[in-house]
Specification:
The chain is α+β, with helices and mostly antiparallel strands. It has 2 helices and 5 strands. The protein has a single domain, classed as Archaeosine Trna-guanine Transglycosylase, Chain: A, domain 4, CATH 2.30.130. The chain has a 5-stranded mixed sheet, covered by helices on one side. Strand 3 and strand 4 form a beta hairpin.
Length: 90
């Protein structure tokens, strides 16, 4: 079973990831993100890819991006991104 991390972004950040100028997505260090990104033993979860959406409508832009890992740095969780794999509704 493929593990997918799904995240919603503002258009500015969505476009930067789409064009390859943004390779790290940041999330605040809060219990919500800790549960989503880390296992109970504290190890980072492994995902096959990250699916980003811009907005919440039916025809919203969507892209899938290669997942390279998660780390905690600079007071944030950093989701490391690879190449854009697929796009839809751009």
């Amino acid at each position: 079973m493929k593990k997918v991390l799904r995240l919603t972004l503002y258009r500015q950040w969505f476009d930067q990831i789409l064009h390859g100028t943004k390779k790290i997505e940041y999330r605040e260090i809060k219990p919500y993100w800790r549960r989503r990104l880390f296992n109970p033993d504290g190890s980072a979860k492994e995902f096959d890819k990250v699916i980003f959406t811009n907005g919440y409508g039916k025809l919203r832009p969507i892209m899938s991006v290669a997942f390279l890992g998660i780390r905690e740095a600079n007071g944030k969780y950093e989701i490391l991104l690879g190449d854009v794999l697929t796009t839809d509704n751009l």
